[in-house]
Amino acid sequence: MAENTFLAGDANWWRQAVVYQIYPRSFKDSNADGLGDIPGITSKMAYLSHLGIDAVWLSPFYPSALADGGYDVDDYRNIDPRLGTLADFDDMVDAAHSADIRVFVDIVPNHSSNRHAWFKDALAAAPGSPERARYIFRDGKGVMGEIPPSDWPSHFGPTAWTRITEADGELGQWYLHLFAPEQPDFNWDNPEIIEDFKTTLRFWADRGVDGFRVDVAHALKKDMSEPLPSVTSFAMENIPLDGSNPLFDRDDVHEIYRGWRKVFNEYDPPRVAVAEAWVPAERRPQYARADELGQAFNFDLLGAPWSAKKFHHTIEFNIHLASKSKSSSTWVLSNHDVVRHATRYGLPKKVDFDKWLMSDGKVPELDLQQGLSRARAATMLIMALPGSTYIYQGEELGLFEVANIHDADLQDPMWLRGGKTRKGRDGCRVPLPWTKAGSSFGFGEGPSHLPQPAWFPAYAVEFEESQSGSTLKMYREMIHLRTQLQGAETLEWVHSRSKVVHFMRPGGWHSITNFGKKAVKLPAGNVMISSGPLLDGKLPANTTAWVTEHGVE
Ligand code: GLC
Questions:
Q1: Exposed/middle/buried for 444, CB within 10 Å: 0-12, 13-18, 19+?
Q2: In whole angstroms, how large is the CA radius of gyration of the chain?
Q3: Looking at residues 527-538, what average pLDDT do you find?
Q4: Separation of 108 CA from ligand 1 center, angstroms?
Q5: 336 CA closest ligand 1 atom index
Q6: CB of 383 within 8 A of CB of 479?
Q7: For the chain, percent of residues with pLDDT exceeding 70
Q8: CB of 397 within 8 A of CB of 464?
Q9: 167 Cα: distance to centroid of ligand 1 (angstroms)
């Protein structure tokens, strides 16, 4: 049996870790205000421990007006009072560490919220002042400065510039926000910003935080030389490989992360980080270099259709990419920004998820059975790969996207900013069902901040605990087996039929996924686990099995 690599104090613990993403406001509410909170997370530590994960990553829990689900941060070194206190946070970290679970927090460096003290100071100060220089302010064009400084769009549409009213009551300068107007972009050419974020990293590392997830890591540095260049779309195709896009993936962004690495290395074991960088795959290794963040999210499988060929190539390519920076790859199928994978796989190929959500999930019809089988099979596949796996709260229950949230209940800025043409990401952020009945299905003792659907009881933790073969039980068993088997970070492809992905890990451990329609033969050995029932000893469609040649001790 291979060694368990997740030993306390091991500086490489992250390389093959299973990291569970918590969206704190939707995980567990301990004080009946409808919002999940930090004591709620602490109260579920036994659940997380039973799942067998190595770490949790908490999406933002900072004070925030929630203009973008907490990614609009008022104060980077505090807790939203609705979610708890710093003392609650310390208790949560202690409870996690006692359960051998590491803690990642989310750092949002591209922008603060418009309620951040520095942004308020900037509004009150004059153009050209040091207070304004912490953000990106520019005069408008046109005779009266009435035209935005450039044509740049925002992610949430329509424009990335908002004009302010100056202290004297007159319309004045414009500020940049690549996301919502409540999220003004910092000026990373200003050394004060560089120093302040190092203080924030140390603040959390000193409290025992083990790692950082870095939000939109590729956007911090911008080419602000006049005249500002035209950028009319944020599409990935417009990010070239030479770092020449004015807004994203510029080469000088890496200086920032080299500075951060020095901070991480002040600690023992060194703190770790993972970049959320939506850049062409070839550019990803730069963020993952050992003297920078160390790891970068690979979202390629998340975007891949259900196809053996696509999965095979994506896996091969990403293992190669990770090795370029001597990092390990990450595997992700769901997070708080995308339609849950059980739903994606239950819809026809090439469907437009935004349109599907706009039909309240009615057109085209979702094939629940296919969606869940494929989701389970895909997760079992990625769990067998070398590298770390990021799972998103609720996927261990097999949750589907909640597609029919009423317009009036939608919170995502995409909805209003996008002219009500895209519902956005609320459907994967609905509070978890813990119990089969009761107010908000055990999420809290009151209604939840986003409404839960009537089908939740069949996916509640309490229900799945009682069902053999439930998705929850499968996750627990799979993660347990994985930690027993995970050894060297190598993989050997096994030649197989075109609709099958079959590889072997050290110790004669096979993972086989059937992407086709016909059941296929399994290799000789012991079937340790399968994502669905076998058919006369064969592997049916939409199923993964793990087989050992020698059995597991
Ligand atoms: C990241 C987050 C997303 C947020 C955006 C702006 O992509 O994952 O939820 O809206 O950054 O902070």
A1: buried
A2: 23
A3: 97
A4: 8
A5: 9
A6: yes
A7: 97
A8: yes
A9: 31
**Per-residue pLDDT reduced to its tens digit, 384-400:** 999 999 999 999 999 99
Q: Which of 214, 216, 248, 297 to mutate to test the pocket of ligand 1 (most atoms within 8 A of CB)?
A: 216
Average pLDDT over residues 128-151: 98
Q: Are 54 and 17 in contact (CB under 8 A)?
A: yes
- For residue 192, pLDDT over 80 is answered with yes
Q: What is the pTM of this model?
A: 0.97
**Both ends of the chain: CA-CA distance in Å?**
7
CA–centroid distance, residue 399 to ligand 1 (Å): 22
How would you classify residue 234: left for phi > 0, otherwise alpha for psi between -120 and 50, otherwise beta?
alpha
Distance from residue 71's CA to the centre of ligand 1 (Å): 6
- 14: Cα within 13 Å, side-chain hemisphere: 27
pLDDT of the residue at 7: 42
Q: Tell me the CA–centroid distance for residue 481 and ligand 1, in Å.
A: 33
Question: If you take atom 12 of ligand 1, which residue's CA is the nearest one?
Answer: 71
Go through the domains of the chain in sequence order and give each one's CATH number: 13-111+192-464 (3.20.20.80), 117-176 (3.90.400.10), 490-548 (2.60.40.1180)
